[in-house]
Fold:
Amino acid sequence: MSVPFNFNGLETKQFDRNSNNINNFNLNTSHPLIPNSNEYILYKKFVSIHSEDRDTIKFPISSEFEIELPEDLLNVAALNLIDWSFPSNYDVFSFENGNITLVFKINNPYNPGEYGVVNDYAYRIYEALFTSQDENYIIQIEPGFYNPQQLVTELTNKMNYAVTVRIGEYFLAQGWDITYKEFVLKRGYQRFNVVYNNVSSRIWFGNNVDPFILQNEISTAISLFTNGINCTEFKQQLPDTSNWGLPGNLGLPRCQTSSVNTPVPGNSNASFAYYNGIIVPRFYYSDVFPGDDGYWLLPDQDLSGSSVNWVEATYKINLMGDAYMYMEIEGQNCIDETKPFNVSTFTLTTNQTNGVVNSAFAKIKIPTTPISQWFDWNSIPHKIYNPPAERIRRLKIRLRYHNGALVDFGVFNYSFTLQFTLMVPQILRNTNSYLYPPVRNFL
Structure:
C-alpha cells in the first residue's frame, strides 16, 4: 500500500511500506544515506610511552602504573610491542628474592688439649666455640649483583665476622679483657676461606682448623619466612623450584652439608694434594692467591694436629638472575603462561594444568647484566581483536618476573613503543578518469 510521506514539510513521492527497494527511499534530503562499502584501510598508529610520564604520586613504583593515551584510538584490530629500552640494574641477590641468607654451624671445634698444645689463647677460643657448637651462625650478604670473586670474598668476610662477634661476646662475658684485646689485634677469627674454581665454576668452602656444617635446610626456611613477612610491593608470589635461596645460587643442595677433611669417594683426586703429610685441596690451573701455587687452604702451623676442612659445591654457581620479564597490559594480554608445579589438592585430583590463560602481553628477554641499558625490538606476540575494539584510551601496565615479583627499576626510567593497527572504514566512490585531449592511436 502506498501512502504520502511528509519530511520536514516537503511532500515526497509515495512509497510502498512492504517494498525493500532502496530506490523508494528517496527522501529528497541533502544528507542521503551512503551505503557502507565494507572496505577498510589498515592504519598503523604508534604510541611512545615513558615510565617517567606516569603519576608518580599515585604510582610511585615504575613497574606498575596506568597511563592515558593522547587520543581515543578507534576500531583497533591489533596491538603489539615493537621496540623498548630498559635499564639493567636489577639485584640478583636481595631480600625480596629471599637469597641473601646463609646458615652454618661449627661442630666439634679443634681442641688444643687433645694434641698437647699449651696455649691459653687457643684454648679460650676453643671454649667459646664449644659452648656454642649447637647454635647456628646466620649471615646475610649485601644485596646486589656479584661476580664470583666478589661473592666468595663477601662470604669469607661475613662468615669470619659472625664467628668473631660470637667469640668476642663470650670473652667479654667471662671478663677476659686481655684475651679480648689480643683477639682484636689478631683481627678476630680468620679460619674460614671461601674460594671460586674458575675452571669448574664451583665454590669451595674451607676452614683451616675447625669442622663446620652448612645448614642449607635452615637457610631455605629463613628465606621463605622473611619473604612471607615482606610487605613491600615486590613480594614474591609463586614458589620457585630452582631459585630457592642463597645456597641454591651457590650450587649447594637443599639438605645440610658437612665439611670433610679427606676426598669424598667417587670424586676426582685432581683437586687435592699432600702438604706436609696432610691432604689439602689444591687448584692446579693457577694461583688462587698470588704465589700460593694453588694451595688455598693450609693447616694452621701453630696448632699441632689441626686439619683442614672443606665443602665443594655440588653444582655450578648461578649469578645471572632472571633471563626474562613479562609485560602485562590489563585487558590486552595474549600469552598463556605455565606456572611452577606444586603439590596441592588441585594437582593431585585433576589432570589439568595450573597455568594461566592470557597471563601476559609480551615476553621480554634480559640480555645484559648490571649496570647497563639494553635496546630491543619486534616482540612476536600481538593481540588480535575480532571484532575490532571500539575504543582504547587508557592502559594499565605491569612488569614482573615469571614468579610474579615486580621488576625493581629503582629510580631508572624506561620506554617502549606500542603499535595500534586501526581499521578505518572507507566510503564507496565510483570515479571515472578521462585524459584530455584524447590521445589517438595512430598505429
Observations:
- The longest strand covers residues 64-88.
